[in-house]
Amino acid sequence: MSADRPAAGAAPADGAVRARVAARATTVAATIVPGPPSPLGYRTLARAAGEPLAARTDLGGAAPSGPFRSLLVFVHLSDLHVTDPQSPARAEFLDRHGDPDSPLAAALGRIGTYRAQEMLTYQVVEAMVRAVRELDGGPLTGAPPAFAVSTGDATDNSQANELEAYVALLDGGSEVVPDSGDSRRYEGVGAEEPYDPRYWHPDGTPPGADDDVPRRRHGLPVVHGLLDACRAPFVATGLGLDWYAVFGNHDAMLGGTLPVTPALAARAVGGDKPVGLDEGVDVLGLLADNETRPSTEEWGVATGPTRPVTPDARRRPVPVGEWIAAHLPGHGYDEVAAAAERAHYAFDAGSIRCVVLDTVNRAGGWQGSLTAEQLAWLEAELAAGHSRHLDALGDEVATEAPDRLFVLFSHHSLETLVNDHSPDGALRHLADDVRALLARFPNVVAWFNGHTHVHSVTPLPAGGGGLWQVTTASHVDWPQQSRVVELALDETSGDLVVGTAVFDHAGALDPRAGELRDPVTLAGWSRELAANAWQGRVPAGGTDGGAAPGREPRWAAEPVGRGAAADRNVVLVVPAPFPLGDTVTAGAISARDAAQS
Q: Is the peptide bond before 305 cis (omega within 30 degrees of 0)?
């Protein structure tokens, strides 16, 4: 979808919603965009005019006019991808098969196992946390946020050191150390030794070597000292809010797709880093199968080429129960969930029931699905908050249950629930089953998720109403933004409205002007590098990845992560599924605001 083309149901530019917008710290006031390209296509970033809140009435209802009565405000973070870039359990070399000069590029597109900015993920999360603390409140009334939610892939490679760091970054108050292996030097793929010109080397070219491909072909800069600065410890600020966790495929599996085996676990903590596949591996088939049926045996773990790195026991893969236990106390889980390895749960925010799903297929594959047990649990949760709903045959069921509004959270979006991989034959429920279930329960009004790394807002109509799916982009890829969300009652129409405004992290707009070891400076470098990702990019005016012989393609203005304008700052109308009136109450204010009052 073009960033300039409004989605169906979006209000025209002169129909921007007039609301008490918390504009100062969101992209309603101003946003960040790539500037003009250099001769090689590299773009620094610039401040641009903000994007007003636009109404979307795809599901019906009246254009929102207010006044609005706030019911719930929360912050939506997704895909933090806190990454140990020096880990021998990573497979950066796979990404080279998606480069413009690869014969497989057109078939594979973006692979996502390497990013030039991957050593700066700790600092990006810190900068996002600081931006959250600067929010004025919800986009409709300015009411304070009750909580934040992180919808999965908080870690990149299911490692213990990544998990410890992500929790510390959101909790705040402790020192985080973005380093592993040898504390005296950086050992990731951008290091001077061994020098591999296929990856970005921020310290420049060693004597006698060729300039690396990212600088020679794509104009990436030299940033002397970055590989030392990115490993410097700092004290985490913390959200200052209650926050809830959602399980993602990268939290569960190596590379977000491979279940941990003894051989892979040994690789993670050991001293041999793979730098390529066994020559007999079919790369195209391997990466295609990754979506739902990865084969550990075909990865050439034992037979592919390696190089030595410093072993580190802190890189050990984390089992599901330990991942849950690391969030105790709070953050949605309890000891029973940890013991049972149960990553789905529900909680109340005022009269709104918040339901957290576990969409990870632990048998493998980066796409999602639900177990039969979890789908039955979800049905029971929804039935307990509906006075009327439909049964599986489409017949109406009347109950004594009080009506409640429901909001869902998960890592995977509906369209990515396609992973039916089940070695033990257990039933996995895919998108059609989940959508059919939700269509029977009209009080489900919104579903927040991530996974795709692209902002998207999609109506899911059902009967005379439906719900909105709101997908938020990642911290690791462009544009490195999050959302503040407000559910409110439009007291004129009686409809429910869901206001969302995206916001940028607090990283420096021009990192060249900052102190290199400052997390804000490093987060600024990460965002700029993310805006210049070349892997899987689409040439301007075409999709074939081609260029004249000997010339690089002319890339489109920016990567796809921002989505369209109608996927960002919007007010989504949901016709009231039952008379709201005084039956809904606001969620509790945050612990930070309670303390301040």
A: no
Does residue 3 form part of some domain? Answer: no
Over residues 71-91, mean pLDDT: 97
Q: What confidence category does residue 545 fall into, taking pLDDT thresholds of 50, 70 and 90?
A: very low
Taking the C-alpha atoms of residue 152 and residue 344, their distance in angstroms, rounded to an integer, is 12
375 in any annotated domain: no
pTM of the predicted protein model: 0.92
Helix H or strand E encompassing 465: strand 465-471
Query: What single DSSP character describes residue 554?
Result: -
- Assigned domain for 316 exists: yes
DSSP conformation letters of 47-66? EEE----EEE-TT--PPP--
Q: What is the mean pLDDT of residues 317-337?
A: 96
Give kind and range of the element (H or E) at residue 578. none
How far from 461 is each of 14, 362, 436, 467, CA to CA, in Å? 26, 30, 11, 6
Domain total in the chain: 1
Q: Of 20-29, 57-66, 349-358, where does mean pLDDT reach its minimum?
A: 20-29
Quote the domain boundaries for residue 95: 13-338+485-575
Residue 571 belongs to some domain of the structure: yes
**Short-list 535, 527, 555, 502, CA closest to 33:** 527
